Each structure stands twice: as C-alpha cells, then as structure tokens.
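Exercise (ungraded).
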Amino acid sequence: MTTETHSTTEHGMSNAGYVRIAAILAAITALEVATYYIDLGALFLPSLLIMMVVKFIIVVSYFMHLKFDNKLFSWVFYAGLILALTVYAIFLATFHFFS
Amino acid sequence: MTAEGHADVHGGAHTSTGLSNNKLGMWLFLGSECLLFGGLISTYMLYRGRVGEGPRPSQVFDIPFTSVSSFVLLMSSLTMVLAVSAAHKGDDRNTYLWVTITAVLGATFVGGQVYEFTAFYNEGMGFTTSLFSSSFYVLTGFHGVHVTVGIIMLMSIVGIMKRSKVPGSKAETVEMIGLYWHFVDIVWIIIFTLIYLIPA
C-alpha cells in the first residue's frame, strides 16, 4: 500500500477533496450571508437553519473525519451534542422561549 | 510498514477498545464542550431582546465584517485538515507550513474580534450595558478564548516538532489539535447563524 493510498483511504480524503469541501462550505456561507440581504419571507429562518446544519455536518464528517473513523467516536460526540440540545431545548421551553 | 509502525501512526492503539485513548479522550472532551457552548448560546437566545437602554443587535452588528471573519475561520479549517494530512504522510515541511498558516488565520480572526468588540464598546455597548450585551460578550468571548488557546497549541506543536520532542505519534498529536480547531470552527458556524444572521 502506498503512502498516498494509505493516507486517502484511512485518513479521509485527498487534498483536492478537502479543497472541494472547503469550496462548498464557502459557497454555503455566501448563501447564508445573501439571505440577510434578500427577503425570503417565511423561508428565511428554515433556510438559514438548514444551511447551518449542513455546514456543521460537513465539517464534522469530512474535516474531523467522523465519516471515516470508528463509529465509537461518532457516538461519543453526538451523544454530547444530543444531550446538550435536549437539555437546552427544555431549558428554553421552561422560559417560554418558543411561545 | 510494520504492524508496530502502523499502530504508531494510528495513535498507538494497543488498548482494550483497539482505539487511541488520546483520540477517544479528545472526542469525549469535545462532546462535553457542546454542553458548555449550548449553555452560553441558550442564555444569549433568552436575553438577546433584553437591550434596556443600550443598542439593539441590529444597530451594532456589522454583517459584512463578520462574514469575512467567518470566511477566514472556515478557511483555517481547510489549512488545518491539510496539516493533518501532511502529518499522516510524514511530510514535516508541509505540516509546519499548514499549521503556521492555520495559526495566522486564527490570529486574524481573533484580531477581527478584538476590533469588533472595540467598535461595539465605542457605540455604547459595554459588558454591563444590558443582558443582551453581557450574554453576547460572554458567548463570543469564550469562543475567542478557545480560538486563542488553539493558536497557542498550534504554535507550540510547531516548536515541539522542530525539536523532535513530540511524545508518541506526531501525526496523532497534530490530529488532536486539528479536532479541537475544527470544533472551534463548528461552534462559530452556529454562532454566526444564530447570533449574527437571525435578527432578535
């Protein structure tokens, strides 16, 4: 197994792949900023939240290698994330944030 | 590559899980950091409308400036992943290069944050002006401190690697710092959307 093959298969992607991912992230960021200036009406909030989640998942999956790494790392991280989301959703609901 | 060499590159995973304990510990730490930033973000969301006599978020936020800062931090994630990739290939020269560029981009982001805080203060938004300003400064300040700690780690690893005093696998050490750096980036992805782009 060559060093290059070893590197791209076990540690994620090739460098060109990372650059492509970064370009996608930059494009999504540009779209996010555009929504601030364009009136999207009722779509404003959902579109921003979807783009935020997509960027989050791309960075975690590809740059942090969770997509290619052992699933235990994913479980550990997403368990913390889901716990945080649950705890603070309840916290905000207690203070009538959503109403 | 020998079995021992292979294990070393992948973090010396002679453990009961077969995984690197360092890496598992870092992921546990990042999972716990979700709770820290979740608390700070939730507190900001609750208080962002409580401006009192002070300025409202929309009156002080400079979206074009913060967008450029966000872009800089996003690109630092790219340079960081390139550093990790170079470290796994045993390419020290490119590892130093990409790690240093990452630190410079991080420093640019922190510099932008200092400029932004100064501008907000001059516009009448002090730390104790309102609940909004307090929660805003605590949240973004905590994030800025995390970025600063990341820069210190990046510069330290370059110095330690050049003296060949990295304990264990170099690639794994760079990867650990990379995980921390990317986490700081994903926290900013959330802050940028929820705090800056969605008006109170």
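Further reading is listed at the end of the chapter. For now, observe: The two ends of chain B are 57 Å apart (CA to CA). Confidence is low (pLDDT under 50) at residues 1-11 of chain B.
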